[in-house]
Amino acid sequence: MDNSKIPHEQFEAAKKAAIDGDVHALEEFFATYAYHPQIRNWYDEIYPYPIKEKNLHEDVRSIIARDNFFNDWSGYEKFKQEMNKENSSVFQFETAADAVVKGDSITLKHLLKQNPDLIHARSIRLHHATLLIYTGANGVEGFRQQTPKNAVAIAEILLNAGAEVDAIGDMYGGTTTLGLVATSIHPFKTGVQNELIDILLEHGADPNFSVAPDYRESRLIVACLANGRHAAAVYLAKKGVALDLEGSAGIGDLDRVKNYFDDDGSLKKGATTEQANSGFIWACEYGMIDVASFLLGHGIDIAALTNGMTALHWAIVGGQLDTIKLLLERNAPLEIKNSYGGTALGQALWAAFNEPRPQDLAIIEALIAAGAKIEPDWDKYIDEVRRRQV
User: Fold this and answer.
1) Measured distance CA(21)–CA(34) in Å, rounded
2) How many CB atoms lie within 10 A of CB 363?
């Protein structure tokens, strides 16, 4: 298998071809790189089979349709036909959506003045997003998952024009703009996540109905934790968003966590073992060491697999060296494999090469010192991490 990198220019051109619906250009690209590992990572969820095992032309059309959020080529073709009509509602909505994600306030205001119904319109793509939902930079087509620096001003334009703040998009089981903003990495990177949360709450966004019901009682907080947005979870809690035991543990609120336990160490009515277990792994992932220590003293099974990994795996995922040391002191098992087949040391090595961090070597050394088994072919990887971080 070819492990060399696909030239950046060709890869970017292929991505653009998928967005633009250029079947011919994408066919030529896949004819050369169909089996390349970068391609497998790029479109693994779109087709679970090697491209050349099926008709290349049909495969490429399927990829384009899915990348643009349509079930099939027929749906995508109808979309393209509407996009060729400048007066069509589809063309106008798509133009407005571009203005939203690019931060083009002048074009957006012009379009809304020209067609006020756009404020309540929805995309014909599978997610059926409103224009306001696009400010969430989440759950929509990949090329539109971006947050401009003036995203708050864009959101304000839409809300003042009458956008429904709690309109639900058909992504992730049903999510509003608040749920998308709070769990997205893009507004976080742009530095406007809290401000976007604020303006949505000011316009009446309901945090209790912002994400799909399977997140349970404090589901918005838990959704943030599950998507790596710990800072947003803490911020929302400060704004008064509902918390249960799981969410309280995840944000590191030890006093609140203690209130869910009776003096004899048992859970109070309304708190569940499931919440305690899930809260424990979030506390480990995000370095809430006081909460993790407290829960360990209140019946949490340090060896349990929660969401496919042990607490030690989760602490390694989060790069939390102090928490890892705590778990090792409490005899956390080293050789239990996670749902991907990795031990604690295997997880640490994977992180060191795929999501490198300054603390990787210290974590690896701590695991080895604790007795973690080194597989025969791992020495070279460990030596490489040591060389990089000397």
Assistant:
1) 18
2) 25
101/207 same-domain check:
yes
Distance (Å, whole) CA 2 – CA 261: 55
Q: Mind listing the pLDDT tens digit for each residue in 288-342?
A: 999 999 999 999 999 999 989 999 999 999 999 999 999 999 999 999 999 999 9
230-239 contact pairs (CB < 8 A, 24+): 230/286, 231/188, 231/193, 232/182, 232/183, 232/188, 232/193, 232/194, 232/197, 233/182, 235/193, 235/194, 235/197, 236/182, 236/197, 236/207, 239/197, 239/201
Tell me the per-residue pLDDT of 193-245, one tens digit each, with 9 for 90 and over.
999 999 999 999 999 888 876 654 458 999 999 999 999 999 999 999 989 99
Last residue of a domain, one of 187, 211, 235: 211
**Domain membership flag for residue 344:** yes
Whether 27 and 139 map to the same domain: the answer is no
Residue span of the structural domain in which 48 resides: 8-67
Q: How far apart are CA 25 and CA 131, in angstroms?
A: 31
Is 311 within a domain?
yes
287 belongs to a structural domain: no
Q: Are residues 63 and 89 in the same domain?
A: no
Q: Is the pLDDT of residue 124 over 50?
A: yes
Please indicate, yes or no, whether residues 102 and 204 belong to a single structural domain of this protein.
Answer: yes
How many other C-beta atoms lie within 10 A of the C-beta of residue 52?
A: 12
Sole residue written with tokens 């090792």 = 328
Q: Taking the model in full, what pTM does it have? A: 0.90
